[in-house]
């Protein structure tokens, strides 16, 4: 039995308790509409505003069947040397342009890069592969709209989608310059590692993961579907330089280690950072928790470095 009283510090417990006060652990037992209402309210309560100098503009990407809302973050700095395509978390059923609004603004300001947040379609109204298709459409749009390098970044479900896009675009003429994956779910082996030791972790449990996957797929899963589970790929060559940041107290932590190992074994560049004592979704607590603040600085550093084509690891 994992002793979270020892692993997790007082600041992180305060964040967990504040989160639970808005978004109770049993929220997955509510209707989808109720879950979204609760999640959106929680995100508003944690919103930290924009750093000085950051502006945002809403737009949309047109596809043959629908429009994909996006939000573009900029600073007054000279022409950015890269653009970041940011894909938000939320279990594939929650979130949008507002849920990760301040996170994107805080990535934009210190890096100086233009950040584009993607409001992909959510399940259950739009099951897999709708979210992946939208992420791919956003990449194709960025490849056509920008001449500067494209960096993929995403947290949780968004980390899954960012990695899936990296696998799908490795031979693209504008293949991503890098990817930064923040506590991503990559379809790892649930019979071992953190899936066992942290099956009942605060903020995210294996029961939650199974629920989100069932909603995303409708219970219909094709083995080996890399767009669903990037770790199912049999070829990890030619992937962009990759930084994966995970939380120790999270059933998904082992996915980060497994993904790094496979990229490196295939001759690629990958670096895995596991943040001790942190929990899933800690980005939202970056202004409450010292450890989360330091981790966010490492994430910003990774984004800044990869966008310049540097590899400091």
Q: Nutshell version of this structure?
A:
The protein is of the alpha/beta class and 313 residues long.
Write the layout of secondary structure elements.
Layout: H1 4-7, H2 10-22, H3 32-46, E1 55-62, E2 67-74, E3 83-87, H4 101-111, E4 114-118, H5 130-145, E5 150-155, H6 157-168, E6 178-182, H7 194-197, H8 206-217, E7 242-249, H9 253-265, E8 270-279, H10 290-307
Parallel strand pairs: 3-4, 3-5, 5-6, 6-7, 7-8
Antiparallel strand pairs: 1-2, 2-4
Helix pairs in contact: 4-10, 5-6
CATH superfamily placement: Alpha/Beta hydrolase fold, catalytic domain
Residue share in helices?
A: 25-40%
Overall residue-averaged pLDDT value = 97
Which strand-content bin applies to the residues? 15-25%
Terminal CA distance: 34 Å
How many domains comprise the coordinates?
1
Using the CA coordinates, give the radius of gyration.
18 Å
Spatially, the strands of the biggest sheet line up as 1-2-4-3-5-6-7-8
Using the coordinates above, name the CATH class: Alpha Beta
User: Under the CATH scheme, which architecture would be assigned?
Assistant: 3-Layer(aba) Sandwich
Question: What order do the SSEs take from the amino end to the carboxyl end, as H and E?
Answer: HHHEEEHEHEHEHHEHEH
Number of strands: 8
Unreliable spans: none
